[in-house]
Specification:
The chain is an alpha+beta fold. The protein has five helices and eight strands; from the N terminus they run αααββββααββββ. The protein has a four-stranded antiparallel beta sheet with strand order 1-2-3-4, with helices on both faces. It has a four-stranded antiparallel beta sheet with strand order 5-6-7-8, covered by helices on one side. This is Transmembrane protein.
Amino acid sequence: MPARLSRWISVTALALCACASLTPLQTAQKLIGQPESAVRETFGAPTETYQLADGTHRWIYSRQPLGHEVYAADFDGQGKLTHYRQMLTEKEIYEARPGVWTKHDVAERFGMPREPTQYYPLMKREAWSYRMYVAGYQQAHFNALFDDNGVLDRTMIVVDPLGGNDRDARK
């Protein structure tokens, strides 16, 4: 009996490792150049869709509010997948253009927020918040603040005081 249990544990562990290593990004890389139907079959229906100014379009796959990812599937004019990437990264966030981007521009890039929006009357700013990871493991929130005209005023990444580095808990 212990030998069977040991084999079962080994096979189960191997299967779990295989599942964990196959991420949406790796799966999507195999779909580059494929039609929208292949992406929909693989990832399901998008949470949002956007027609972009250059004639291409984007599907957003949001895992918010409890998840930490927002994926974007970009398609060319013929409906073929050209890019698939995680949008809640510091690189993507730093491309935001305060004073230029509007709520629509932020939604095209990161999707609509799935957490309740906040309004700060003294600052006269509306805040959209997205959960994310910084440095690969530190839980944080990306915040986009808009003025009363709906123009992006600033962005910030705030470390989540309730999440974070579980190594500190082991001390």
